[in-house]
Amino acid sequence: VIEDGSNILSLDTPYRALDAAIVPKSLNFKKKQTDNEYVKFITLIVDENPSPLVSKFKLSPKVGDPSLTTRIRVDKYTYVRAVFEMNNGKKYMTANYVKAAGGCSAPSLADMDAVMARLGKMKMKFIETGSDARSINKAEFLISHPNYSGLQFNQLTRSEIPAHFINYLKIEQDGQLILEAFPDISLSEDPSITFHYLDSGGSLVVNAEDSEGKKFVGDFSTSDAISLRH
Predict the structure, then answer these.
(1) CA-CA distance, 171 to 180, in Å (whole number)?
(2) Cα 197–28–226 angle (5° rounding)?
(3) Torsion-angle region of 175 (φ positive above 0: left; ψ -120 to 50: alpha; else: beta)
(4) Closest Cα partner for 48 from 89, 86, 21, 79?
(5) Which phi and psi angles does 166 have, rounded to 5°?
(6) N or C terminus: which one in the chain shows less Cβ crowding within 10 Å?
């Protein structure tokens, strides 16, 4: 049973997207995480995409606030959904209708050689930082990756570009899991996730992997306003 989650979660999406290949999707939860009651899983879905699953996220109480923002591809006019499961097993859903088309087959605006040259470069922007261990901090993570969907064409050769995308991501601090993600092709080029966490003082450690088995690691000190790692 999946219950209506609109009293717990506000899902923010544009009604008509400016760019179907980069559609912002924000989840704003009205309840904070606690050790006894917290959001354990979030699943993002785009009904009419060739691969409807955008990503599944596993969260821990260390997130503090399960709200997050990312960017998705939308292939045709469709509902986009957020399904979340609490630690007690109860499931909830909220959905919005989005007018956009062609996002999964839209070509990258960057040169392919340039895209591959910066493959795996990571950036962490610390947006909000508190003064103690119970402060809920906010950060934005971005990894440079074409996230090819397998539905795009090389504009020079007119041949299909094989699917090549980030399919695993884990963010930790001091050995404690903040979030773990299992994305698919519906996540936009250069995946970006804005998230929260209860700061314990250590650096944020990111492990990512793509569909070709390439692994990427980043270590970001919370004392830096903006950090860059490869």
Answers:
(1) 6
(2) 45
(3) left
(4) 79
(5) -70, 125
(6) N
